[in-house]
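WP5 quarterly update. Target: Fis family transcriptional regulator. Source organism: Microbacterium pygmaeum. Length: 201 aa.
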Amino acid sequence: MRWDRFFDDLEDQLASEWEAERAALDTEAERLRLSRVALRDRLHALIARDRDAPTPSFEFSDGTRLAAEVTGVGADWVAVETPAARGGALLVPLGAIVEIGMPHADVLRTARPGPAPSSLVDRMTLGFLVRDLVRRRVAVAIALRTGRVLSGTIDRAGADHLDIALHDPGTPRRADLVTGHRVVPFGSISWIRLEAGVAIG
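Structure tokens (predicted):
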């Protein structure tokens, strides 16, 4: 009888040690998985979030703070729109995001593995989108990391910068209405606001 109890205790001890070892391996595997999750993956997961939950809040490098829904994610940018959609969509370089506030359920859900992005938009860079804005002659407002906002039309886009012709919002880009020209490195951009109704991508 005593031997039976001894073997039962030994079996329980081995099972407990095995369970602890398996839990440690699971924890380490989860840490390794999380170390590979990129911000753009988490932003991509916000596109399909429950719209009945509180809207995520964003702070950008120029100090702008707003509640907005993610509508698109590219290689190095995110597109967001405010629920009221006033003034058009914002195109934001990932490096200009200072922080994102979201409900705890979204924090947990966006950290889980999701489907691998596969659309063409997912591979588009900021430069690609800016060159598309040049082609379409879209009026924009560009917020710089310093807090200044430039309004006008982007004339040209290089590998890492753009040229903007400055003019008042709501006016066409005509030579007599242009008040100046600026060369803006992509690295100094906090966000680009597109005129209302303009789609990204």
